[in-house]
Amino acid sequence: MRIVNLTEESKSELLDILQKRSPASYTEYENTVNDIISNVRENGDKALFEYTEKFDKCVITKDTIKVTREEIDEAYKKLDPEFIEVMKKSAANIREFHEKQKRESWFTTKPDGSILGQRVLPVEISGVYVPGGKAAYPSSVLMNVVPAKVAGVERIVMVTPPQKDGSLNAGTLVAADIAGVTEVYKVGGAQAIAAMAFGTESIPKVDKITGPGNIFVALAKKACFGHVSIDSIAGPSEILVIADETANPKWVAADLLSQAEHDEMASAILVTTSEEIAKQVSEEIDKFVELLERKEIIQKSLDNYGYAFVAESMDAAIEAANAIASEHCEIITANPFEVMTKVKNAGALFLGHYSSEPLGDYFAGPNHILPTNQTARFFSPLSVDDFVKKTSIIAYSEEGLRAVYKDVERFAKEEGLTAHANSITVRFES
Q1: Is 414 an active-site residue?
Q2: Out of 3.40.710.10, 3.40.50.10540, 3.40.50.150, 3.40.50.1980, which CATH number does the structure's domain 2-22+235-364 have?
Q3: 288/118 Cα distance (integer angstroms)
Q4: CA-based, 20 to 30 A from 387: which of 1, 17, 94, 237?
Q5: DSSP element (H, E) containing 396
Q6: Residue 21: partners with Cβ closer than 8 Å, 6 or more residues away
């Protein structure tokens, strides 16, 4: 792992490098994605079946595109019962955490009888995209679906690409059943996003699409935004560790590699006030890489986006962390809660020696669908709020309107909107 002194120049160079990983940078695929979306909008299921045969080498029909109860029951038989119980515990933790995010509708009344308020309702149908093949993650199913269920969404549609024989990952199906997915369809890629955004003969149009995917999925979500709501346009996984001399180098190295194994574009960054810690972490990483199964992916990730920055002070380290705005940020210092108060930009914070990042990925309860590519400066983790809509309520009495109608008239006339003003005036002409 390369060790670099943290300076304004080195920080700026890193930000430029990381930003190039954004899905927004891959414009050469946009025409292909737009063509797929147009085809699905025009031809519906027919386009889905053709793309599934072309890209997934699987023949599906209107009779086989939807997963049956029998297929779900069969998936349970393929999994270790102990793992099923672990998934149920994880789902319970996720549910408990997200229950605390629920908001209630509210109303307030004034002495003149006027009523103001906000009505909070869940969206009617939400859709979740789940990658297939080697990138099948049951944990992402739980993280996408449980908040929607807590929000009160009644119909949850899941799409995921099939294997050549038409089967789906057993863990994905069981996780969907545990989380409360209503229906599952065997389709993936940009065509699956288009199907949920616009609807086909088999797949209903949804109100919200969440879930990770490859660059084609990300660009399809971007292109369909506006016709449907989306969670975000996710980029590659990221971890940043802020560490001082109290950190355990072996543990830090292990945590950094937990994200580097996701893919070759994942970033793993250490920012430390100790040059000795930087050297020791780098040495431990080299040892681990030789032992881990995904070492080729890990090594390419580290070669491209792996850095150990040595900062002159903790304040400088924190400033760098805020600029990078990492998806995951571990704080392994003597006083992690003090440092936390100064870290403003991060998708999720992991505090102390025993709060390893995979806790957030699988089990602790907070959502692991987090802002990437520096968007933690203005985006938040997936939450119950993503699956509700808020409607303002205004109910004025005659007395209430009479007290303010001249002010409303004045405002409307100042903007040159006389019909607005007239709408108020006619009520008091007599």
Answers
A1: no
A2: 3.40.50.1980
A3: 53
A4: 237
A5: none
A6: 235, 236, 265, 267, 305, 373
177 token code pair: 């059943």
CA–CA gap between residue 296 and residue 264 (Å, rounded): 9
Rounded CA-CA distance 193/158 in Å is 10
Q: Rounded to 5 degrees, what angle do the CA atoms 239, 245, 249 make?
A: 55
DSSP-derived 3-state class of residue 207: coil
User: Binding site for substrate: residue ranges?
Assistant: 237, 259, 262, 328, 361, 415, 420
Picking from 188, 126, 132, the residue whose alpha carbon sits closest to that of residue 157 is 126
The CATH label, of 3.40.1110.10, 3.40.50.1980, 3.80.10.10, 2.40.160.10, for the domain at 25-230 is 3.40.50.1980
pLDDT number for residue 295: 93
Residues in the annotated binding site for Zn(2+): 259, 262, 361, 420
Domain boundaries, the chain: 2-22+235-364, 25-230, 401-428
Taking the C-alpha atoms of residue 201 and residue 396, their distance in angstroms, rounded to an integer, is 45
Beta bridge partners of 241: 270, 330
Residue 23 clears pLDDT 80, i.e. is over it: no
N-term to C-term CA, the chain: 81
Q: pLDDT-based confidence at 274, cuts 50/70/90?
A: very high
Query: Does the pLDDT at position 133 exceed 80?
Result: no
Give the residue numbers of the binding site for NAD(+): 129, 191, 214
Instruction: For residues 117-141, give the mean pLDDT.
Output: 91
Residue 23 belongs to what H/E stretch?
Answer: none
Cα 305 off chain centre by? 21
Q: Which of 98, 284, 328, 357 is catalytic?
A: 328
Residue 134: its pLDDT value, please?
61
Helix 30-43 to helix 215-224 angle, to the nearest 10 degrees?
A: 60
Question: What is the reported pLDDT for 135?
Answer: 63
Q: CA-to-CA distance for 98 and 392, rounded, in angstroms?
A: 24
Q: Which of 327, 330, 357, 409 is catalytic?
A: 327
Q: Is 353 a catalytic residue?
A: no
Mean pLDDT along residues 44-58: 97
Non-local (6+) Cβ contacts of 73 within 8 A are none
Query: pTM higher than 0.85, yes or no?
Result: yes
CA gap 316, 7 in Å, rounded = 9
∠306-308-314 over CA atoms, to 5°? 135
Q: What is the mean pLDDT of the chain?
A: 96
